[in-house]
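Two entries, shown back to back:
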Amino acid sequence: MNLPNPSVLNLWECFVRQYPKYRNISIPKHFYFCDNEQDANTCAELVEKKIKQATAPSVWWYEYHNEPMPKVGDLFIVTDWHGEAKAIIEITALEQVRFKDVGEAFAYAEGEGDKSLAYWRNVHTDYYTREMEKAGAHFNENILISCEYFQTVFTKDTKDMTSSKTTNFIDMMTKYFYRLNDPITMNKLFFILLIIFNSCNKEKELNLVVNNLFQDNMVVQHNSITPIWGSVHPNKRVEIQISWGDKYETISDSSGNWRINIKTPKVDNIPHIIKVQSSNDEILFKNVLLGEVWLASGQSNMQWKMRQAENKDELSSPIYNNNEIRMINVDRNLSLKPLSKFSGEWQVCSSETVSDFSAVGYFFAKKLYDELKIPIGIINSSVGGTPAESWANVNNLEKVEGFENLRERLKMSNDPNTDYNRWLEEHLFIDRLEFINKDEIKYVDEKNKI
């Protein structure tokens, strides 16, 4: 029975205080890594520091113990060897591969030792051998490994108990009920403590910002130089660590802006993790794929969504489930000045998400994927009815005949004191029938519209 001990209860209580949406779910299972005290405590510490962000149990272990495989989004509580709760983790990506096919990116994400594949293979060969021999089974390099990526979402250092007396009281009560070995009583105690004690800090606001284009589930252009940018306090060091083994750093400028060009390897069809860090702030991007990235832009033909197509009733079919086709829709936000940020979210293509994909963008991505067999990312920024010039750079557009004075014209159009804008402000309603086929244009004042 996986009953929560006082330490586990305490950490979970703080977590649901900070994230109330988890209040009504059961307390997650708690566990420690490895089969000995030293390794278990080391791994727990690495998880707590957000260095270890993956684990690799064998599929044989799940089958032998009749344990269900985890799912993306599942939460678990990591403890040390003695059951002291250290962190709460969330599963972000899953992949089953044979031991011999585990790659460097996953070994790096596991975060143990020197993070090399050689170290990973050596340590895990010994571990799987010990584990399987206890059950009379034998390890070989063809066994399936459940490569489980996760993120550390909460640690014991995140919480702040109001006083040592409060902590002692909680420990006393939970230890008493824990000895009863009664899950129902334990759950009742847990919710009572939630009501009585408000012992956790609010979530810390990050100073570090990365442009919204960079998110979980994104596709990054492979085999190229790709910029990542954002902002932080002026003259601060910013570091980027990537699970394929690269590390970069820079210093933000006097305005706090920073930009780092990363060199991306060729496609490897492995979900990666990108960590951006400055001082105590850290942002983690999970389930990142290397592939081809394309911008889909234009008018209504590009904006037209899959749910508006003739075969919209077929979108629930599993044929649309493709983890390697992804799209981000840039939310409409018209502006006469360049914007530094936007709203939108990367979506993995599935029967649940494809309805909001640009139809042209989706079939373009599918055509590329079918021919290239590599991940495809589409950035869809399209607005129906917009003229071509509204997408063009002003400096270039002014070189085109008819747009020579565009910058000045835009300035006038934004000035509320120009004759034209004052006229529009005063005469909001125009009777089209009054000036069609006539030399003189007439208007209807708002006060006379009735």
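entry 2 starts here
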Amino acid sequence: MAQPAPSAAPEPMTAPSRGERRRARIGVLALQGAVREHVEAIREIGAEPVPVRLPRDIDGLDALILPGGESTTMRRLIDRYGLRGPILALAGRGAPMLGTCAGMILLAARLTGEEPILGLLDVEVQRNAYGRQLDSYETDVDIPALGDEPLHGVFIRAPIVVNAGPAVEVLARDAQGRAIAVRQGKVLATAFHPELTRDRRLHRLLLELVPA
């Protein structure tokens, strides 16, 4: 039986001095998957990482990351621990969100051949579009919104966006022209794992979406 993945404990909150901006608190869904890597990335961009396992962990978050992992297991654990409603409420309050790989699947409003999970992103996503584990690969990804330098993408049983609604901006495509990074308002999603590289531009973009 799958259990929540261990991860770092939340860092203690300290009051900012006068004129200093409070550090943003960015949650990482910590049920399963690449939790530790996202926690490290959040620290590196100067925000406070908060592992999210229970509904109370969502209180006071400024943003949320839904990491890569196994989406079927994550779906089951989201419901087991009563997280679906609190995540949707957080999104309803305008908190930015980033889904990577399985996180993209969690966010999608439509999934090829199965019921959606959170439905926060107006896209249809196909799971395992590049094949199974043995077909995983790495490549540079051009994302003009992040600058001229390509971002190195790690694709592990990656999904793709089959179609996207009119409000969705496609940030990047693969060599076949299929969407692999998208944005709708404050909701970001990638088919690849940016947290498995040293490039923090996507995490910084998420942080920039948090109101000052």
